[in-house]
């Protein structure tokens, strides 16, 4: 069947070379760059995406010198002997008719080590180290180092390089008044601030010759105070174009920006408008980025002349064969990125290897391997939540006869509650994907059927995978039998009425989700203009950095979010998304209290103690969001009946709702059973 995505699959002609489609795999650090034998694993990782049909791949950031490294042992390309390991990547990609560029990234003041340098001696809020201000000699040397890295990349077989000029890294630090307080020819007026990136591009082009792709990542929206103005962005784009750039990629927001740019609550294609606006002033192809996770969205951007290419990073973690599936008009089979950040960016910022919540094989292509089975088994899987779904599909794809049972009338388990949270609508996509995959894999699905040890034994099962998930933990509070007290399932599953004044007991992920659910009338993630207004993104670009005063938000409900721990409320949330959830609830006036002891529930509300003082929270309802316990009543019965039992997901560990661990456990068990 012909693909409906006609713009997406047009080749892009750069003159000396052609890119087979309009999809660029955006740069993303994986952590494999620093692991022992990591480049062999990286080669397999990128090769799988090339095999999946992506037109052009950009690697994670590689520093041109020691001071520019992300961390003390961060990856660097500055010596001829380092070329060989990079050639493993390029060879693997070229074997699948792919093209790949290496990103050259100097972190500047974002470096997580004490040897950092920057235009000025200004500490970044996201690292503990204060950089040294670069001397003019160091600036000139760094320009040469960029050119040297590009030349070595060319020798390693890369088709080009991407120069990282956005996201608040070194080049971006030179361009913006916020971080450039120099008074020499590298600072002050725009001509001086723009000199550094222009000289870098000129040096690279001189080193690599005319037939080598140079991409420049242009910061189109800094989203920080004292960022660039729109006319400065355009002028810099023109200058790097004249200096020899072939493609300009969009950069959106600094890492220290207080505006979310990629989390799941950001609307799809929320920033394509700025790419379209800048593109009108340029002559080289321009790439749109951020929250483009379906072929329909990508096609729409191209069809509307907003960009010449679209960049996807996390969507190609989630599904390496995204492009081929779209080309074959099988978009319904794409494992869609839900922008959760839990296994990708959160891992990278914690110095762990990146992967993907919905695709645990990402970055584990050589280790998590699914071989056809020699002796198929008849397996029962009880529970159709994320863990059970992943196991059932993987095991069936290997050749086992798999029967999936669930007492509910639908698959999904806890995902069916998560998808209702405003800003988490992407979870619908995961359930759509699994419904398709169950059919394709040939899993026998039995819904609305509760199983016992006897019923499973009568059906001839000797091996059972328990993926029965969790049940809410009960909290012993005097008066907890009051009709004022509800569980989170009463709210999210049964949709029981909730009053205007609410106390939530438990401030983990569930507590935050319920707070969001109760304080949001309509989801801003479904409307780009509304979302931009809430977060203070100036779509008219009248202000430096495109920042405006955020729109005030109100909630019809008065909500208290309570926890026993004395630590900061929400401290256990994701590293790259937790601040967004806290900021969202703060905007709506949610009162977050830590170090709380729950005394009693009365007709007036909830009595608590904090800092030795008793107080009454006059609320209509108290919602218990205080964690879960494993649901594994069947285990003992099954084992007594002589069956082999495997526990995965919440049935194994229920400390927090953890879909990342649940899906990985399901995959790992399926690989070896």
Automatic annotation (TrEMBL):
NADH:flavin oxidoreductase/NADH oxidase N-terminal domain ranges (all copies): 8-330
What is any Pfam family matched here? Oxidored_FMN
CDD domains named among the record's database cross-references: DCR_FMN
User: What would be an example GO MF term here?
Assistant: metal ion binding
Ranges of residues in domain FAD/NAD(P)-binding:
378-651
Q: Which residues form a coiled coil?
A: none
Top-rank taxon, per record: Bacteria
State the PANTHER family in the record. 2,4-DIENOYL-COA REDUCTASE, 2,4-DIENOYL-COA REDUCTASE [(2E)-ENOYL-COA-PRODUCING]
Q: What name is this protein filed under?
A: 2,4-dienoyl-CoA reductase
Gene source species = Pseudidiomarina maritima
Taxonomic lineage from the root? Bacteria, Pseudomonadati, Pseudomonadota, Gammaproteobacteria, Alteromonadales
